[in-house]
């Protein structure tokens, strides 16, 4: 919680200055470090201006950053306490789409709008620990709650974040099980950074499933009486929607969209408006086990 003195000091700054301080905090808090060049590139300011911004931020939050002379950058301390309020949704949007750098002004909505994804909100400190580990290629120790094995302690090599449409997952290498896997962010109840680099064979470049792009071809389910309506829903071209997606996300996407993935489109069209025309594309995709009708695809071979 920011004290009244700091809050008053922030209020005295211009909107532009607050936005730059907000960026400094987001970059440092969620990536672990930043440089003056980061500020200069982001806002198109001169070195003198970026130096003033950093000086102002460090004056308002003297315990948050220290200058790492060896690497010529500012890094976060163990006593980091945010000046600004951060929401998991905004931070995740920033990492996913790259446009969430601006401050949340909390303007009143002229049209009420909610999202079902608001039901699932990762804990912000855990999220920051994980994103810093990803950015710095460092391992983490986590307490994880699994549906199959319950609570356990794991050593993970965090690699990437992935939005399944229903919740956010961490793509990581599980050192205990010796494999790349997905972990629901909300089931990571505690995360602690380990000052150990990620071995080359456990980095994202070695994740075969993550590197694989799967080409999927979606068409209206053959059992639909009026397929033009479905074509309009998904802005299909010539009756088909073609997408390329990373293998670990394919199964989640097909399940979310209720796509009939059986080879002979045998699922109920009332519940499955789309059919995966090229079902053979799922061969070797680990997440395909989540796709509706996937077993039908296997049985038809």
- Major β-sheet annotation: 5 strands, antiparallel
Strand order of the largest sheet: 7-6-5-4-8
- Compute the number of structural domains: 3
Q: Helical segment tally?
A: 10
Global Rg: 23 Å
Q: Low-confidence runs (pLDDT<50, min 5 residues)?
A: 99-110, 296-301
Residues in helix, %? 25-40%
- Percent range for β-strand residues: 15-25%
Strands, count: 12
Report the mean per-residue pLDDT as an integer.
Answer: 89
Distance between the termini: 60 Å
- So what's the overall shape? elongated
- Which class of secondary structure composition applies to the elements? alpha+beta
| H and E string | HHEHHEEHHEEEEEHEHEHEEH
Characterization of this structure:
This protein has 301 residues and is an alpha+beta fold. It has three domains: 82 residues, Arc Repressor Mutant, subunit A (Orthogonal Bundle); 84 residues, SH3 type barrels; 88 residues, no CATH class. It contains ten helices and twelve strands. A five-stranded antiparallel beta sheet has the order 7-6-5-4-8. Strands 10-9-12-11 form a four-stranded mixed beta sheet. The protein has a three-stranded antiparallel beta sheet with strand order 1-3-2. Helix 2 crosses helix 4 and helix 3 crosses helix 4. The N and C termini lie far apart (60 Å).
Keywords:
single chain, 301 residues, alpha+beta, Arc Repressor Mutant, subunit A, SH3 type barrels, five-stranded antiparallel sheet, four-stranded mixed sheet, 33% helix, elongated
């Amino acid at each position: 919680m920011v004290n009244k003195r700091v809050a008053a000091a922030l209020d005295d700054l211009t909107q532009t200055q607050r936005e730059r301080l907000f960026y400094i905090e987001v970059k440092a808090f969620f990536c672990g470090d930043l440089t003056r060049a980061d500020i200069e590139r982001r806002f198109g300011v001169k070195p003198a201006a970026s130096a003033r911004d950093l000086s102002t931020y460090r004056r308002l939050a003297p315990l948050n950053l220290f200058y790492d002379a060896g690497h010529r950058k500012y890094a976060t301390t163990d006593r980091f306490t945010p000046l600004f309020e951060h929401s998991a949704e905004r931070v995740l949007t920033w990492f996913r789409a790259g446009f969430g750098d601006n401050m949340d002004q909390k303007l009143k909505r002229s049209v009420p709008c909610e999202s079902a994804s608001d039901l699932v909100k990762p804990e912000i400190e855990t999220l920051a620990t994980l994103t810093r580990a990803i950015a710095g290629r460092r391992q983490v120790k986590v307490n994880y709650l699994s549906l199959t094995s319950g609570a356990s302690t794991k050593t993970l090599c965090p690699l990437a974040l992935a939005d399944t449409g229903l919740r956010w997952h961490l793509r990581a290498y599980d050192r205990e099980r010796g494999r790349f896997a997905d972990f629901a962010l909300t089931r990571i109840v505690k995360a602690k950074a380990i000052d150990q680099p990620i071995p080359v064979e456990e980095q994202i470049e070695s994740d075969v499933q993550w590197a694989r792009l799967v080409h999927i071809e979606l068409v209206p389910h053959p059992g639909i009486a009026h397929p033009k309506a479905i074509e309009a829903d998904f802005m299909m071209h010539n009756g088909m929607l073609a997408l390329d997606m990373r293998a670990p996300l394919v199964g989640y996407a097909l399940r979310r969209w209720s796509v009939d993935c059986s080879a002979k489109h045998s699922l109920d069209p009332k519940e499955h408006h789309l059919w995966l025309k090229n079902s053979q594309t799922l061969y070797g995709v680990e997440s395909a086990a989540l796709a509706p009708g996937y077993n039908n695809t296997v049985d038809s071979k």
